[in-house]
Every structure is written in structure tokens, then in C-alpha cells.
Specification:
This protein is an alpha/beta fold. It has one domain (about 10-210, about 240-290): Rossmann fold. It has eleven helices and seven strands. α1 (about 20-30) links the parallel β1 (about 10-15) and β2 (about 35-40). The longest helix is centred in the middle third of the chain and has 26 residues, at about 120-145.
Length: about 300
Amino acid sequence: MAQTSLVGKVALVAGATRGAGRGIAVALGEAGATVYCTGRSSGAARSGYDRSETIEETASAVTAAGGTGIPVRVDHSVPDEVAALADRIADDHGRLDVLVNDVWGGENLIEWDVPVWEHDLAGGLQMLDNVTRTHLITSHFALRLLTRTPGGLVVEMTDGTREHNDANYRVSTFYDLAKAVPLRLAFTLARELAPVGGTAVALTPGWLRSEMMLEHMGVTEETWRDATDRHFAAISESPLFVGRAVAGLAADPDVRRRNGGSFSSGGLAQEYGFTDVDGSRPDCWRYLDEVQGAGRPPDATGYR
């Protein structure tokens, strides 16, 4: 795997408790960064998922990987809590080099292929609020610090590339809109960050082996190839893979050429040379379009 160094860099991963957020935080730690790991699951306190993963576990994994992990319990929908977080980072380091907006919390609100007039209204609106309100509040306060130093990077996490989502119906109207928000935020933030030397991009993982997805599939990180969904068994990727994509972006001296763009973990792996934990480079979105979406049988040959 191509090596990256982020020693001396300070990152904030908003929504680092589990899934992609945890993978991103750990990968930034691999590269030597100091990583603030935020979320609502801390100690005995739980988010709406009521799961066991905590930000303390993520921070410990960051430190074990070679960085410095700092857990901070934050509800990113509460402006005062985010403002206090930004002040703490400023007091501790006087800088912020990387902001990853990964707050979501909408998995239990998804209703597949349900039209807007039948979809639960409160749940649909909550999905939109989760991704819109939290990302805007976090950017409002964190970017005041990030823009103090030229070269800052903002990564808006979503599901699907701009190209794919523009051409496909994504689950439901509410979910589709929720995943369009980070894509558009990356575009608008790019315009606002460019004059001060910053960069904003949108990034999507592929079919992610998050803790919740592994449970849903009835497998573990060690047995994922045994999943009954053979497409998942063929092309899924670990959370660390998309994390290494973020690390690659953060270490790229010419990352500004990507300002406003939409990227995938698999696509960036081809450019930056990083691999997943098994040494492969799964290119999930190309696979989804060319194999699964085309109705072809599961076969990852040429896609990882």
C-alpha cells in the first residue's frame, strides 16, 4: 500500500462512532494524524441506534494505529456543543487541517421503494434533518478554524457518486434527497473555500462492511465472503478502505485540483495506490453499474 504521512495534521471526524466514520478516523491515525472522534455514543450514553460502539473505542483504535485519538461527545445538531468543540480544538492546537462530515444516523428510518405519499413523514424529514442540519452546523463552526491555514480539506460523506445518483433513483425520495445534500454541499463549500486555499469534496464508500451491515448479512469481518448475498460477498469493502481514501486526499499536495468533485473509495484507490485490508482494490460503483445493475451474475473479476 502506498504510504501517506499526516504527522502534525489535526483532523475532526464528525460521526466517528462506527462504520465509515470509524474507518476514516483509524486510517487518519495510520498516517500519524491527531484525530478528534466525535459522536453521541460515549460511555453509557447512546445515540438513537442504541448500539455498543463508542467514540472512546474509535479513539483508542486511532492511537493504536499510530495517531492520536481524542474522543469528544458531541451532538452535532446542537450549535453550542459544536461551537465548544471548535473552541477546544483551537485551544489545543490552533489549527484544523481536515474536517470529515460523516454524521448520518438515518439507517433505522429508511423505507425501501416507498413513495413519498406513503413514506413515514416524520422519519423522512428526520433523515433530511440529520444530514442537512448537522453538516451545516459543523461546517459553520469548524471552518472558521480550518480556514485559518491554507490547504484545509473538507470531506462530505455520502452514498453514491454524483454521476451515479444523478442517473438512478436511490431508495426513496427522502433518502435520495438526503444523499444529494452532501454532494451539493461539497460543490458549494468548494466555491467558498477556494479563495482561502481550501478544498471540499464529496466521497462515497462502496458496499460497506459496517458493524450494522455485517449483522444484517449474518456474517462477521472474518466471514463476510460467506454472505448469502453473493454481490455483497463479491465486492464489499471494509470501513478502513474509504478511510484510506480520505488519508490519500489529505496527504495529496495537489488536492485542490479536486475541489468540488465527487469521488469513490474504489476510484481513488486506483489513483493513490492504497488497498483494502485484504490487499485488494474493490471498485464497487463500477461493479454496481456494470454487473449488479446490469443483472449479471456475481463476479468481482476485474473489479477488485
